[in-house]
């Protein structure tokens, strides 16, 4: 032990300092700038001014909208997610395994692309479904206006309900079936059991999934931006965007943005804290070893109708929007009917091979995704190593700093990065890809830390000690023992970052410059500029890239597990 | 008349006959243990009685009432069978207090408030849980949780109690204590018990009769004494208690085991049909093999170990090792000594 200490003299401290420095620069400094800008006016601390900003109509309306929208999405998403989770785990619904996979598909699809599709289908004047009802079925007015609170809530629900679905179906699958059987033998029918035993026992999972939906919806930019701005529905992230972009950096709009960001951070932190509490304290020990299959509710006559309902849900929420995107992407002009003579491949080849804006965006997203995934993966390994394995004082601080971005919504990170890197402190990265890269690193660091510390915790200290006892130096032990063992964690971290980065919108939309659009930004801005057809075509390409990536990775990961 | 009757009860899992034409009668107030290795179909049988599994053939009757019948495709749902059941993994509800757990079946039955209170209290007192009534079951030990499960099953005053390995999740010393408690409760309330276990001593201690199962087929039903003393076949013999088996060639005058001959002493020869086959398996409990100075099956003591009350010998007969156990007070041979083995209570089974 003494020898070990002498050899490592200075090394842990060096790594620790380095890690703290990285996190300080990338995460803490921008965050502090936000609070500083929000609360520091004319050289002193000022809360009344913050309150004044909050009392402005547009501010409190955005806050209220965020609350209404995320609250609504949380309620509907939780209901939908719990219902489907219960159906695939506790009933004799046909093709349950396939249905379970299908219900997870919305997770792969970016919500803002879905919003785009629904806009094409249900916008009051031009939406294809609305027009069909008005032109052919004699309706006087559109059947549904997607530019509304209900519209936004519905679209977000479609893409966010898997948070609850995953948590609840997992809990129901792991739950000891005799907990329900003992209620049955006690005289309770299946309905009573569901109400009094099953639902209460998985309530912590339901709540934790619900809070994840709320957290995500609160910080979500895309859907509200696509569907809300038309009718003036802003939430916090879209108002921050509005302030930063439209007002060209005036002091007052930056302050408003920082105040909004502060509210968002506090809310997000509160939600995460609550979720942590529910998970650590409220989760029951309901898992047991030996078990039979849980009794399934026989749906009997309802079996086929419910299957049709589920399939219709999937057709409506996954297939219809996806098909719409590809069809509109192939139209000669937006608004033409879907007839063969109106279709063309030209849009796709144009955005892929001719148009710099879209070609650049694909290239930007891929290179940004790769770069941020690589940097974050390696930084994550080092920082997790310090957190998990090294005995240095203050590593709790490191852990806190690393996980901080987890509770920081993307628009807040982007805002902080703007404040830090647009020249005020000697470095101006504004309008370059570097500023987006820094923001991505800050945003995804927590993912990498999670994956890497989980992997490192599996590597018992005695493995390194055995290597040292066999004559390896610390560096050799790391290279030959630790790194090979944590490689799966690193690979996982890489893809956990690369895939979301590919479709990222919330952060990059605040940071992009003329030549640094990402795929998400390009789709969004093309849509804003009325280039609906090109926007849809690019969205189609993005969907292909994303789904291919997801499938390849699933293959890779399961293939590895099998070996 | 038998209170519970299982007739030709059969369960298929795919092509596997998990339970094959099982017949069993249980009298009122009787305790029957189903004993067998894991996967023998005992738990499946219990679950069919409880109503969690449908039958692929046969019927189950309780009192005057058919509760499961393949022919009529009728299955009374578990919640209407009015049985008490205790599961291996306790299955007490962590979101309810001990009291609420026990009161649950009474509340479901919508009994009057005073009766719920009285019966819950009674059940809790009989299981020594009255003091813990307000606690969360998660604060109790395994034994405590299993008491809650027992109290919950008792509260409805069932005529039939189904116990699915109720003791195997408990620490060994709790196990014996709980055994007595279950037996006491049965004496007091007079319910019938169908008890599933893979632990033979548990089955022996608790039950009036034991049903031994293997691969879905009943091997023997009898009192503990019968099953131990007169095992119906080699499997039962081996599953219950210590055993040793020797394949023997038979002649009218004696047997040959591993090239060693022994003449028949009076009374131990197998039944004539086995004798006629010329080959059979001799089964004996190690404690029921005697050392004799002359005659018997000759062998040499190869090992000797003191196990406290008993002494464990290994005797080589040819190249077969035979286990013999004797009380420590009985003077026995030393290692290397030539001895004769006598089998005063031999069992003969056809060779495997």
TrEMBL record, chain A:
Keywords attached to this entry: Cell inner membrane, Cell membrane, Membrane, Transmembrane, Transmembrane helix, Transport
CDD domains per record: TM_PBP2 (cd06261)
GO cellular component entries: plasma membrane
Domain called ABC transmembrane type-1: residue spans: 63-272, 362-553
Membrane topology reported for the UniProt record: Multi-pass membrane protein
Pfam families, A to Z: BPD_transp_1 (PF00528)
Keyword hit for Transport: yes
Chief localization: membrane
Keyword Cell inner membrane part of the UniProt annotation: yes
Membrane-traversing stretches: 14-40, 60-89, 101-122, 142-166, 206-234, 254-274, 306-328, 362-388, 400-421, 427-446, 489-513, 533-553
GO biological process, one term: transmembrane transport
Cellular localisation: Cell inner membrane; Cell membrane
Family (UniProt): Belongs to the binding-protein-dependent transport system permease family.
Protein name stated in the entry: Iron(III) transport system permease protein
Provenance organism: Propionivibrio dicarboxylicus
Source organism phylogeny: Bacteria, Pseudomonadati, Pseudomonadota, Betaproteobacteria, Rhodocyclales
From TrEMBL, chain B:
Gene3D superfamilies: P-loop containing nucleotide triphosphate hydrolases (3.40.50.300)
Organism listed in the record: Propionivibrio dicarboxylicus
GO MF annotations in UniProt: ABC-type transporter activity; ATP binding; ATP hydrolysis activity
PROSITE patterns: ABC_TRANSPORTER_2 (PS50893)
One Gene Ontology CC term in the entry: ATP-binding cassette (ABC) transporter complex
Keyword Nucleus recorded: no
PANTHER family: SPERMIDINE/PUTRESCINE IMPORT ATP-BINDING PROTEIN POTA, SPERMIDINE_PUTRESCINE IMPORT ATP-BINDING PROTEIN POTA
Lineage of producing organism: Bacteria, Pseudomonadati, Pseudomonadota, Betaproteobacteria, Rhodocyclales
Residues in ABC transporter domain copies: 4-240
Keyword Transit peptide: no
Matches recorded under Pfam families: ABC_tran, TOBE_2
The protein's name in its UniProt record: Iron(III) transport system ATP-binding protein
Keywords: ATP-binding, Cell membrane, Membrane, Nucleotide-binding, Transport
